[in-house]
Structure formats: C-alpha cells, structure tokens
Write a structure and sequence with these properties.
The complex is a heterodimer of chains A (418) and B (248). Chain A is mainly beta and 418 residues long. Chain A has helices at residues 2-17, 42-49, 298-314, 321-330; strands spanning 22-37, 60-72, 77-90, 96-97, 100-110, 113-120, 152-160, 164-171, 190-199, 202-211, 215-225, 230-239, 242-247, 260-265, 268-279, 283-292, 343-351, 356-365, 370-380, 384-394, 406-417. Classes of the chains: A mainly beta (418), B alpha+beta (248).
C-alpha cells in the first residue's frame, strides 16, 4: 500500500493547500468479478497436462476509490490530479494493492491557447467498439466496467477558435532514447497532431503521428448527424510500421523459450464505419464494422491453430508432455491484443428509461465466426450507481474467441459518488 | 382589374398575419425576459425529481451558460454526473463523459435520453425557436384558474428543439409565463409545465414539470442564480469540452 499511501498524502496536501481555489470529487466502488475458466483452447489444454502452469486471472473482489482534484493557481495555471486507490483480493489468494495515478499534470489556460505537461488522459477519434486513430491514449475498448484509464506522460499545446481546434503532443517524451523493446505500443515515444474542424452537422478530424520506431502514420475521421435520430461515423488510418505479435522465424514446434514476442512489423491500414440510431421509447442501436491491419492475419491464425494441434498430438507422448504443456501455454501470448481477427462486426442495443440502462451487445469475427456476447444493466440513483454485466465468449471450436482463457465474465459493482 | 382587386383583398390578410406573427414574437420576448433577462447568462440550476410519494427522489445541480445565437454549455455538477458536459450549438450537440476526455457528437434524440432533458435546463428563450398564433383569453390552467391568461399556440421553427409544439399560457398584463404544455415530435404531450415567479414577480424562480410520458413524475427546475456572462469563443468549440478552465 506504499504507492497508494503516497498518493493519498499528495491528494490531502493538494486539498489542504488549495482549499480556497480548488474543486474535486470522486467515487468509491465495491466490485466483484466472477470469471469462468474456458475448457477449450491452448491454455485449457496446457492446464490439463500440467495443473497450475499458467492460471488465468481468478475471480475476486476489489475496493477502489477514484479521487479527482483540480488546484487552481494564479495566472490560469492549475494542477489536475486523478488517482485510483484500489485493493484487490483474488479468490484463494492474498490481497494486493492495485492503485495507480491516472492523471497528474499542470495545465496553463491562456484563453485560446491551452498548454499541459504531465500524465494525462487524451482520447481521440470517433467510434465505440474500436478507434483506429486513438493514437495517444490507445484506450482499451468494450470494457465491462468503465473507469478512468491511466493517462500517458505528455507535453501538449492546443489552440481553439469557434470552429477549429488543433493539438500537438509529444507523448512519452522521456522514453525517446530508450531501447525499442522498452517502448512498445502506447509506451512508444511519439509526436502526434490532430486538427478538428466543425462544418455544421459534420465533425472532421485529421490525425498524424510519428512514432520513435514505428515511423509515420496518418488518419482521417468523420462524424455526421444525418437526422435527429441517426448519426454516422467513420475513421481510417494508414501506418508504415506497427508493433505486434510475431512468432520467431526459427521457432520449432517444441521450443525451449516462448517463440512469441512483440516485434516491429510492416505497414497496413485500419478503418471503421458505424452508425447509431436513437429513437422510439428510449432505444438506441449501434452498428459498427472495422478492419485492423495490425492484428494477426488469417494465415497467421491458421498456423497458430495448426501448431496447437501439433502440440496436442505431441503431448500424448509422456516424454514430451511437460514441454508440450509449456509451449501450449505460450500459445496464449498473441491472445493479448486489442483486436484478435482483422475484420470485426459489432452491434449494441440499449434501452434507457429514466434511471436504468439495459444493453445487449455482440462482437463477431466473420473469418472464424467467433463471438463475444454481453448483457449489462446499470441503475443510477442520486449518488449511487449499480452495474451488472455478464460476458460470454464463444463460437466454433476453432474460433480464436472460443479459445480465450475465459469462457465467461461477470462483473457486479456499486459506486458511491461524492 | 382582377389583379388589383385580388391584391386589395389579400393585403389585409397578409398584413394581419404578419402583425400576428410580430405580436407573438413580442409576447414571447416579453415572456423570455422573465426566464433569462439577458442575452449571455450564467445560470445555476437545481433540478429535483420527486417520487410518487412527493418526496425528493433525486437532486441534480447544473451550471448553464446560455449565449447568443442558440448556443449553450451545460456543466453537470452533482456527484453522480460530475464531469459530464453538454454543448449545444444551434441544432448540433456534443456530450463529454467524465474520464473519456473525448467529446461525442450526439443526435437530438440522444439529447433527450437520461434523467433530465438537457433542453429543459439549457433553453432559456422561446422567441428564437417558436412562432405561432395568439388564442382566446381565458382562465389560466390549474392551480391558477382564478387568473385570466392569454394562450399562445406555438410551433418550432427549427428541428433541434426538444419540443415541436408548445401551448403556452402567459399573464395578460405583463406576459409572464404561467403554464405550458410541451409536445414532442410525434405530437404526444410530453410534459406540463408551471412557472413560479419570485416574490417580487420579476423573474421565474422555478419551473415545475409534470412528465406525461413517465407516470406523471414531477421535476422541479429551480434557478438558484442568474448573472450576465459572456464566455470565450473557445469554450464553445466542441473539442474544448475536454479542457477544464476556471468556469465559476
């Protein structure tokens, strides 16, 4: 609890120092996660060969407090903080601290010019299920329990007028001299820019990014309110290189170390098209389709499946059982990616009477008919918010989504705002 | 001879119609002065939703900046909604949810979802958005039936407003708003409104809304303070919603 202790002390000091010119708030949440382990897939097979070789994340409970604070200083300067104090207790295990500092940055309000330096959440792009141009934050999408993500270290300058805004960001500037392996994905040092223009019912966004080792990428996004009930959006990005999972070229079926590693790979495109209809008795329907050229190709997944089958066959030989189990566990490495298959379809239906929101959504990967289906219920009272969400992973036996470590995930949470 | 005769016959009708429209606009401007009082305002608003037993069920606090040319910025202040912002620029709307730092473009229908129709608290004048006719004078709706009211039949002149049609009752002498029936696009009665003036009778202190679609739930919109405030143009840029300037 040392980290959370330090953060609490920092926040209390900020609150005390800025009592005359400060605002703040937050929420305390009690959360329970129930996770059902999958009996299919490489990890399940590895566990059946050697118990406990790579246990999936167990069920558990968490108590967490999100604290937000803005300390106003002179001349438009402010210090903005968002801290998560969290304690998690996994089933059958001992508790652990999961606290983190989401934001701690200095902001300078110069009217049309806005400057910021420090750790900050910076979300870009349009879209719900996936955002190709979210090139700074790279936020996890479609989470069961939404909360503030951990921000990124950055230096930022923005300019606003009535209809136009532009932003220049140096993200992860301290990592610029680091070795490539220490700055993969959202940890990569990069320069990024966004320009926004409002054209009546149309929002137009342009994006550019230059990553320290992945190089240049550029993108465009549109959001258009077509009618009182219908909004359409699209986003596209082209990149020269990207970080992603790759299997070592010299890997044998029975490798002595994990053949999967994060590596720099080639160029490609990402795009999304979607629309949301809202109408009737508080109903809304969202439909999106997207392509992620940074995900593993269909051919790579075919080879992944073939290697799983080869390892399963080798595991029948007692002398190779242990090594095969280890290799099967390593086969779960590429399952940790924002999109598993390149092409995805997503549907979300929500009903939102006054205090309640009931939603059902489904993600389908047409290449292998894998699917993730979720149902969620939220109630919002005066200060309390209650969330319940059940998610099921499935599809044909050879679908990647049907071979994830978890078969189902249930989240129950009660949050008290203050 | 036919044309001049036709013009002579039609001219009084056209003139009368134009005059009636001017009358309605003037009456609406007079009624609006009891709600807003200035072109650019900062309004602190407390919205209380009452349960079936008449006791307060929920309270929400909002800071609303209303600016000329149908521009409004709404900041949600209550713990349950802190950090949420809604920006309305004419018929265009954006929403910022806390934590996301990413303004979302929303449709007019999405604006109506959730606890309070943001239009109820962000729209402080009718004259810019409605036209109509003046009906017959008669008793005001209950509980003010002892008074005599002027009735206005109003239709929206643009698509982005929360209510397509309004039946408005105003005082005969000063045109202060007394009561209203608010109809949505499908011409269904959505809400009945009653306006409560301050003790001096100069401003609307409270708007009491009775929801005709959601089991006659009562919502009270109380204006805690109003002060003239012109906000910087940058604040009305949708991407600025993610910033956190000193707004008090």
């Amino acid at each position: 609890m040392r980290a959370s202790g330090h953060m609490l002390a920092l926040l209390l000091a900020l609150i005390a120092a800025g009592a005359a010119a400060a605002d703040g708030g937050g929420g305390i949440a009690l959360r329970a996660d129930g996770r059902g382990v999958n009996d299919r897939g490489p990890l399940a097979l590895a566990a059946s060969l050697q118990a406990g070789i790579a246990p999936p994340t167990p069920s558990g409970q968490a108590l967490q407090a999100e604290l937000r604070h803005v300390l106003r200083l002179a001349a438009g300067l402010s210090l903005q903080t968002n801290a998560l104090l969290a304690h998690e207790r996994p089933a059958g295990g001992s508790g652990r601290d999961a606290s983190r500092l989401n934001e701690l940055h200095a902001a300078w309000d110069l009217g049309a010019w806005q400057l910021a330096a420090g750790k900050k959440v910076l979300g870009w792009d349009v879209g719900y299920g996936y955002r190709p141009n979210d090139v700074v934050q790279q936020e996890a999408r479609r989470v069961q329990f939404g909360q503030t993500p951990a921000g990124r270290p950055l230096l930022m300058a923005e300019h606003f007028d009535a209809d136009t805004a532009w932003t220049l960001v140096a993200v992860q500037p301290g990592r610029w001299p680091d070795d490539v392996d220490r700055q993969r994905g959202a940890r990569e040092a990069a320069l990024a820019g966004r320009i926004y223009r409002r054209l009546g019912a149309l929002d137009l966004h342009g994006f550019a990014r230059h990553g320290r080792h992945t190089g240049a990428s550029a993108g465009l996004a549109l959001a258009w309110v077509a009618t009182d009930e219908l909004a359409l959006h699209t986003s596209a990005r082209a990149f020269r290189r990207h970080d992603g999972w790759a299997m070592a070229a010299d890997a044998t079926t029975l490798a002595s170390s994990n053949p999967w590693r994060q590596a720099m790979r080639g160029g490609g495109t990402q795009w999304l098209v979607g629309g949301q209809w809202t109408g009737g008795p508080n109903l809304s329907l969202l439909a999106e389709a997207w392509h992620d050229g940074s995900a593993l190709s269909d051919e790579a997944w075919r080879r992944w499946g073939a290697r799983n089958a080869a390892l399963a066959a080798l595991a029948t030989q007692p002398a190779r059982r242990r090594v095969a189990a280890g290799n099967l566990a390593w086969q779960a490495s590429p399952l940790d990616a924002p999109n598993l298959r390149r092409d995805n379809l997503y549907l979300r239906l929500a009903w939102q009477p006054t205090d309640w929101t009931l939603s059902i959504d489904a993600l389908v990967t047409p290449a292998d008919r894998g699917q993730v289906v979720s149902a969620a219920l939220q109630w919002r009272g005066d200060r309390w918010r209650v969330d319940a969400s059940l998610r099921l992973f499935g599809g044909p036996a050879d679908a990647v989504l049907a071979q994830l470590p978890l078969r189902r995930s249930l989240v129950l949470a009660a949050t008290l705002g203050f | 001879m036919t044309m001049p005769l036709l013009i002579a016959l039609l001219l009084p009708l056209v003139a009368a119609r134009a005059l009636a429209a001017d009358d309605v606009t003037a009456l609406l401007q007079a009624a609006d002065r009891f709600r807003s009082g200035a072109d650019a305002l900062q309004v602190e608003t407390l919205v209380t939703t009452l349960g079936r037993d008449g006791r307060p069920d929920k309270e929400r606090r909002y800071t609303v900046f209303t600016q000329p040319r149908r521009r409004s910025l709404v900041l949600m202040r209550s713990p349950a909604e802190a950090g949420q912002k809604v920006l309305m620029l004419g018929d265009d709307f954006w929403l910022l949810l806390p934590g996301s730092q990413r303004p979302l473009r929303i449709t007019a229908s999405q604006k109506l979802l959730g606890d309070a129709a943001t239009g109820d608290i962000a729209t402080m004048n009718w004259a810019d958005d409605y036209q109509g006719t003046v009906g017959a004078d008669g008793p005001c709706p209950a509980p003010d039936e002892a008074r005599s009211c002027r009735r206005l039949r109003l239709a929206a002149t643009r698509k982005g407003v929360s209510y397509a049609r309004i039946e408005l009752w105003i005082g005969q002498a000063r045109s202060e708003p007394v009561a209203a029936e608010l109809y949505v696009q499908s011409d269904r009665l959505a809400k009945r409104a009653r306006f409560v003036l301050d003790p001096a009778g100069r401003q609307v202190d409270e708007m009491v809304l009775l929801d005709a679609l959601a089991g006659h739930r009562e919502t009270r919109v109380r204006y805690l303070s109003r002060m003239p405030r012109t906000v910087p143009e940058a604040w009305l840029n949708p991407m600025f919603l993610a910033r956190n300037p000193v707004m008090e």
